[in-house]
Amino acid sequence: MVNIGNDWDGLLKSEWEKPYYTKLRELLKREYQTNIIYPNMNDIFNALKYTAFSDVKAVILGQDPYHGAGQAHGLCFSVKRGVAAPPSLSNIFRELHNDCGIAPPSHGELTDWARSGVLLLNTALTVRQNAANSHANIGWEILTDRIITLLNEKTAVFILWGANAAKKIPLITNPRSLILRGAHPSPLSANRGGFFGGRYFSKTNEFLRERGVSEVNWEIM
């Protein structure tokens, strides 16, 4: 049984008993025994552990964890302190600076955002080393679609970068929520246009402020 440690436990309790998750769990046991899998199995559900359902103000949706050594730790686009920021994250920090005037931090760990109410969720929560998207379509999307469906009940901001994230738009039907869509921050996509200038961070806080909700603190210490 998965133990998140906050209100996600009650919301997702029935998921752990469903056939798809039982099958997924057995597959992951074999994968962790026979391959190098990221993140560490104790970090798989960090996005939910750091940001309780009741605290979610905004959601940033990624595809799957970074697949390089020492990078992934359960929060999309985030890397542990001491690990160089990947190009996608560097572009996110560049847009943050252009949008809000916040200087790029000295590290790429986004736990401050998570604690400020930003759910940093990937659609697949594990990946094989050096094999992007290798754990797509093994069952994770059933769980993360359920999480998005639950979040659709809240008034929140959904920040969707790239085509993979945009596929989740049909799950977000609450007229009280805001969808901010842009190109993926990877250099190939971002430099083609559609990512820079999206003002995702200031627009999020403007939306929250207008609804009497405390803003996200986008500064990373």
List the helices and strands and how they pair.
Blueprint: H1 8-12, H2 19-34, E1 37-38, H3 46-50, E2 58-62, H4 87-100, H5 111-115, E3 118-122, E4 127-128, H6 140-151, E5 157-161, H7 163-166, E6 178-182, H8 187-190, H9 200-210
Parallel strand pairs: 2-3, 2-5, 5-6
Antiparallel strand pairs: 1-4
Describe the structure in brief:
The protein is 34% helix and 11% strand.
Question: What gross morphology would you assign?
Answer: globular
According to DSSP, the number of beta strands is 6
What's the pLDDT, averaged over the residues? 96
User: H/E order of the elements?
Assistant: HHEHEHHEEHEHEHH
What percent of residues adopt helix (DSSP H or I)? 25-40%
Radius of gyration equals 17 Å
- Going across the major beta sheet, what is the strand order? 3-2-5-6
Which stretches of 5+ consecutive residues score pLDDT under 50? none
Largest sheet: 4 strands, parallel
Indicate the structural class. Answer: alpha/beta
Total helix count? 9
